[in-house]
Design brief:
transmembrane; single chain; UbiA_prenyltransferase; cell membrane; mainly alpha; membrane; UbiA_sf
C-alpha cells in the first residue's frame, strides 16, 4: 500500500480543501464535527484510492517483479495474488464510498473518486508501458486527488479545476525519471524533469504573490525546492539506478512540502504548518516500507 506515499495523498486532500477556501479565516477551535467530518471522509477516500491503486500496481507487475524486484510482497510469497486482488478491490470500494458520503450524488467528490480509481487501474495495466502517456496518466491520478480535496466545496471545482493540472505536470516529471530506477537513467530525462519542476515552483509562487502571501509561502517553497533539486542534481551527475531512485523518492516525499506551500498560498499559516508536520511521518514510514 506504500504507507509513506499515502501520507502524501492525504496532504493533497488538505491542500485541495485549503484551495477551496473551506478553512479560510476560520479558527481551528471553531470547527464543529459537521465541518471536520467531510475532510476526514475525503482523507479516508484517498487512503483507499491510493492504497488500492498501488496494490493493483503490484498485482499487474507480479510476474516482472519476480525478476526485477523479488523482495516485493507477491513475488516473495508474503501474500498471494488472489489475496492482493481482494485487498485492492476492498480499498478502492472504501475510497469510493467515503468520497460519495461527501455531498452524496449531488457533489463532485464521488464522481472524482471513480475517475481516480479508473485512472489508477488504467495506469497499472497499460499506462505505465507508454513512454509519453504513462507519466501523464500517473500525473492525472495525483491531479484528480487534489481536485478531490477541492470538491469539499462543489462550486470551487469550477473555479480552481486548472490547479489540478499542476500535480499532473509534477508527477509526470517524477514518473519520467522513475523509469531509470532499475538500470539507470539519462541526462536528457533528468533535464526534462528539472524544467517541469521549475514550472511547478513558478505557478505556486505566482499564486502566493497574487494572494499577497508570498512571505508566508516562501519558506515552504524553499524547502520544496531543496527537497526536489538536491537529489536530482546528484542524479544528473551520476544517473545510476540508486541515484535515480533517491531522486524519485525525494520527488514523492516532497509532495508534502509542495502541498504545504499551496496551503500557505491560500489559507492560514497554522494549517500550512499542520500539513508540513506530515512530512516526518512520511519520512519515517519511508524507512520502514518501500516508496517506489
Amino acid at each position: 500500500m506504500r504507507p509513506a506515499n499515502i501520507i502524501t495523498a492525504i496532504a493533497d486532500i488538505l491542500a485541495g480543501v485549503a484551495i477551496s477556501g473551506y478553512f479560510l479565516h476560520t479558527d481551528f477551535q471553531e470547527y464543529t464535527l459537521d465541518q471536520v467530518l467531510p475532510v476526514i471522509c475525503l482523507c479516508l477516500a484517498t487512503i483507499g484510492l491510493y492504497g488500492g491503486g498501488v496494490v493493483f500496481n503490484d498485482i499487474f507487475d507480479a510476474t516482472l517483479d519476480t525478476t526485477e524486484r523479488p523482495e516485493r510482497p507477491i513475488p516473495s510469497g508474503i501474500i498471494s495474488r488472489v489475496q492482493a486482488v481482494i485487498l485492492g478491490i476492498y480499498l478502492l470500494l472504501v475510497g469510493i464510498i467515503a468520497a460519495f458520503s461527501v455531498g452524496r450524488f449531488t457533489g463532485w467528490a464521488g464522481w472524482i473518486s471513480i475517475a481516480i480509481a479508473a485512472s489508477a487501474l488504467i495506469y497499472d495495466k497499460w499506462g505505465k508501458h507508454h513512454k509519453t502517456l504513462g507519466p501523464l496518466n500517473m500525473g492525472l491520478c495525483r491531479g484528480l486527488n487534489l481536485l478531490l480535496g477541492i470538491s469539499v466545496i462543489p462550486d470551487a471545482v469550477a473555479t480552481w479545476w486548472w490547479i489540478g493540472l499542476i500535480p499532473v505536470l509534477y508527477i509526470a516529471a517524477v514518473t519520467n525519471i522513475s523509469r531509470g530506477e532499475v538500470y539507470g537513467g539519462t541526462t536528457r530525462s533528468i533535464k526534462v524533469t528539472a524544467v517541469c519542476y521549475l514550472i511547478v515552483l513558478a505557478v505556486i509562487t505566482a499564486m502566493a504573490t497574487l494572494h499577497h502571501r508570498l512571505p508566508v509561502a516562501a519558506p515552504f517553497l524553499l524547502l520544496f525546492a531543496a527537497m526536489i533539486f538536491s537529489p536530482l542534481w546528484k542524479a544528473s551527475k551520476n544517473p545510476t539506478g540508486p541515484n535515480i531512485g533517491k531522486a524519485v523518492k525525494g520527488g514523492i516525499v516532497a509532495l508534502i512540502a509542495m502541498n504545504a506551500a499551496w496551503v500557505a498560498s491560500f489559507a492560514t499559516l497554522p494549517l500550512a504548518i499542520a500539513v508540513l508536520l506530515l512530512l516526518p511521518v512520511s519520512m519515517i514510514l519511508g524507512r520502514l516500507f518501500a516508496i517506489t
